[in-house]
């Protein structure tokens, strides 16, 4: 079944070029010009990926993404006319998966859509694996800790899955970033620390005294089974 792409863009000419390129790659598309309508659409008939313009007439794309992340982890690609580094950092911090600056090649955007969907797609078959007190279900992208399901964002799931996959190995921030599929030059590296902090808080809600994620100053992070 073809992936469904929701395009949220108020300029018809830009939307038309995206629709043409995406449908040429076999995707189905829906075009909306307002953030509010897009959020309601995603609640009712979820798309597989959103292409979201930052400069929308009703609500900025950044604010729309914040609202979206309250109920959905659908992949998001931002479109913007601004190329400042702070914009890239803000966009990635609030949960975007990629960032495209206008003017852009519609074929490049289509290629990025394909790459993101391939990256986030669950494996065809992946039984739950026990890693100490953790149970990792890669197919459903769920992790249980001491028998309790963790409420994880997609990035938190991938970070924890990567750490659990190689116990005691120290992963650098760059390696963890690569595991998220985010380019090292995207200004996102320092936000690995924020994700780790959030992960630790969620783990402590289950086992207050455990410290399964260890910090190695100047090096990175590891999963320590003896502290789980």
From TrEMBL:
Keywords attached to this entry: DNA-binding, Phosphoprotein
Pfam families in the record: Response_reg (PF00072), Trans_reg_C (PF00486)
Keyword Phosphoprotein: yes
Protein name: Two-component system response regulator CreB
NCBIfam families: PRK11083.1
Portion annotated as DNA-binding: 126-225
Domain Response regulatory: 4-117
UniProt modified residues of type 4-aspartylphosphate: 53
DNA-binding found in the keyword field: yes
């Amino acid at each position: 079944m073809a992936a469904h792409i929701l395009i949220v863009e108020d300029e018809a000419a830009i939307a038309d070029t995206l629709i043409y390129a995406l449908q040429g790659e076999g995707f189905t598309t829906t075009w909306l010009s307002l953030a509010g309508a897009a959020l309601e659409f995603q609640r009712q008939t979820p798309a597989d990926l959103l292409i979201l313009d930052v400069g929308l007439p009703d609500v900025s794309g950044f604010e729309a993404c914040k609202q979206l992340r309250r109920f959905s982890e659908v992949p998001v690609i931002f479109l913007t006319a601004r190329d400042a580094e702070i914009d890239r950092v803000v966009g990635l911090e609030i949960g975007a998966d990629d960032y495209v600056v206008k003017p852009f090649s519609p074929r490049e955007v289509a290629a990025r859509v394909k790459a993101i969907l391939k990256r986030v797609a669950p494996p065809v078959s992946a039984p739950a694996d026990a890693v100490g007190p953790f149970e990792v279900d890669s197919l459903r992208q769920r992790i249980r800790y001491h028998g309790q399901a963790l409420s994880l964002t997609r990035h938190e799931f991938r970070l924890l899955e990567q750490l659990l996959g190689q116990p005691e190995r120290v992963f650098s921030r760059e390696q963890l970033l690569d595991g998220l599929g985010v380019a090292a030059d995207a200004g996102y590296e320092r936000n690995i620390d924020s994700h780790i902090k959030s992960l630790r808080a969620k783990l402590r809600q289950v086992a207050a005294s455990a410290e399964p994620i260890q910090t190695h100053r100047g090096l990175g992070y590891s999963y320590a089974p003896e502290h789980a």
